[in-house]
Design brief:
alpha/beta; Rossmann fold; 10 helices
Amino acid sequence: MSKDNGVTKQKVSFPHGQHYVVGNLFLPADFDEDKRYAAVIATHPFGGVKEQASGLYSEKLAEQGFIALAYDASHYGESGGEPRLFEAPGDRVEDIRCAVDFLSNHQHVDPERIGALGICAGGGYTVNAAQTEARIKAVATVSAFNVGDARRNGVPRGLFSDEFRVQRLKEVGDQRTKEASGEPLRMINFVPASAEEIDENTPELYREGYNYYCTPRAQHPNAPGVYVFTSLDKQMAFDAFSHVDLISPRPLLMIAGSKADTRYFSEEAAAAAKEPKEVFVVDGATHIDLYDKPEFVPQVLGKLTDFYSKYL
């Protein structure tokens, strides 16, 4: 347990099937043992860990009076799940439901005031979970990313051809056959492996992803920038926003940077959702700017604080 800015950080764990998910639970300053608080579950980006963006926003929300939970997704960080670094949307969505289980039974959480915050792919997973997870009472995303759409079509959309998709799925199948015969897992980078791989043709999202995950800005030993290649078929079959209309009458807030090459994900999801809903655009920000940049985080945090204070 540690304290910073009056916020208490506790290491916690909760079950997901046969393994445990590990998180950091942030308790507000002036925490009152006799009270029950509104709580927010923060889900990290693709390939990230709780010590990065989700942890930053959790700590900031705790400073605003909420209990907040940042956790390592199954297969990542301190959480269980094999194989390691396996990006399975079904597991990621179930993590969120298990986090709701945990907070719903926490002695200091009001189970009727649980919200969710998802960042990047965590935003897609959070929206997907909330479509049918009625215990989540308020849903917000920051730089939401639809993994399935991105794996099928690329970012920006249209980057991948039909031929590319067919070939990629053939490669996944061939690799599964190899691994079933005892060959080692194949890993794939989700950001460039080195600065030398970045050129004028590298999409903004991946240039900035390298800067975030692979430099002192936010690098962490549990977020090495790779994932298991054979998880791609599961990602390609996933659609984060297929039933976003089911979130209503619970509120949906989607925050995106005006310069983000992924902004269309938030706008399209919100267009398909029912009221109450809002897209909040942060002027001048890119996708990854909203993870941690001090010129943008206070604006995002202010919007999130107002949103959760109103609806939780």
